[in-house]
Specification:
There is one protein chain. The protein folds into two domains: about 5-115 and about 285-340, no CATH class; about 120-210, Roll (Pdz3 Domain), CATH 2.30.42.10. Helix 1 (about 5-30) runs parallel beside helix 7, helix 2 packs antiparallel against helix 7 and helix 6 (about 255-265) packs antiparallel against helix 7 (about 270-285). The chain has nine helices and nine strands. The protein has about 350 residues and is of the alpha+beta class.
Length: about 350
């Protein structure tokens, strides 16, 4: 991998984390809360500076980040009734503070898509080259391999990537593809899997050629909105699949994400920027799931407390978040080992 593309990928992932935590930080400050620490990463502090009552730092473990607000932890020594305490603020300000992180990622993803589609939108032209086959996917079961060139179907030639996507959705239920492999042409029949009313082969691909498409502002906003919706649904289905038996899901940690982005940036910086946008949206949605230690779990505790008109026990909430954090750290270690040992 070229050094420039690796630096781009690292900076891009760092930007997503910074924007997420900045969302929490800015709304907390607006709500009059005291923010003690703004950290990118966990563990031993590699760098730290103090500004306007907050310690800004970089931790050694690159697993997200956190904003430490006075009163959020039982053992930070803050008087719950102090003016700047999180516990002393009304429900709507606490809810907005937690929600601001995922919203910041969502907005960033949309804006990056608008810029990418408005100024750097290219259409992939056929034939279609497969760059990755997901494990246990319809493509793998159908015999497709990385590097295959998909010319079309028995009735359609893939002039653009849109033709390829349309063919997948029109499969009834099988799809016969004309494939060029090692200079030989063959036909393979695959059965796309179906999730949420859409069909998937489980591949990453690119067009052998491409052309720039100029979009009007209205078309740009419409396509960006559609892309946000598609990525939102895809993220929800992807996370749900993790908890489904007999469904194999490939997970990537920071190392795998940086590797994927850097490889993408070497081929096309504009495509890599769109991938960053999609990653930002996915990060925002993922954090809204009620998984202990994530923002969604904190929002759930706040909502339950508001419904029963009595806050959930802070001790219980803290234990749940600590257990969740330990499990996420364990998953991070396992996934990172897989990223390092993987191809």
């Amino acid at each position: 991998m070229q050094l420039a593309s690796v630096i781009f990928a690292i900076l891009a992932v760092g930007l997503l984390i910074i924007l997420h935590e900045a969302g929490h930080y800015l709304v907390a400050r607006f709500a009059g809360m005291n923010v003690k620490r703004f950290s990118i990463g966990f563990g031993p502090v590699l760098f730290s500076t103090h500004w306007k009552g907050t310690d800004f730092q970089i931790g050694a473990i690159p697993l997200g980040g956190f904003v430490q607000i006075d009163g959020m932890s039982l053992h930070d020594g803050t008087d719950p009734n102090a003016p700047g305490s999180y516990q002393n603020k009304p429900f709507h300000l606490k809810f907005a503070t937690i929600l601001a992180g995922p919203v910041a990622n969502y907005v960033l993803g949309f804006l990056l898509l608008v810029v990418g589609l408005g100024f750097f939108h290219y259409q992939a032209l056929g034939p279609i080259r497969l760059t990755k086959i997901m494990g246990d996917s319809a493509a793998q079961k159908g015999g497709l391999k990385e590097g295959d060139l998909l010319v079309g179907t028995s009735s359609t030639t893939f002039e653009t990537d849109e033709d390829f996507r349309a063919a997948i959705q029109a499969a009834a239920p099988d799809l016969t593809l004309i494939v060029q492999r090692d200079g030989q042409e063959q036909r393979l029949t695959v059965t796309p899997s179906e999730q949420g009313g859409r069909r998937y082969l489980g591949v990453a691909y690119e067009g052998v050629n491409r052309r720039r498409i100029e979009l009007s502002p209205g078309e740009t906003l419409s396509m960006a909105s559609q892309e946000v919706l598609i990525n939102t649904v895809g993220t929800v289905l992807g996370v749900a699949a993790i908890f489904m038996p007999k469904v194999q899901v490939e997970l990537s940690g920071p190392i795998g994400i940086v590797r994927s982005l850097s490889e993408r940036a070497q081929k096309s910086l504009s495509d890599a920027m769109k991938d960053v946008a999609r990653l930002s949206i996915a990060l925002g949605i993922f954090n809204l799931f009620p998984i202990p230690s994530l923002d969604g779990s904190r929002l759930l505790f706040l909502a339950v407390g508001a419904i029963r008109r009595k806050p959930v026990s802070p001790k219980l909430e803290q234990v749940v978040h600590l257990v969740g954090l330990a499990l996420l750290l364990g998953l991070f270690v396992v996934v990172s080992i897989g990223d390092i040992l993987g191809p």
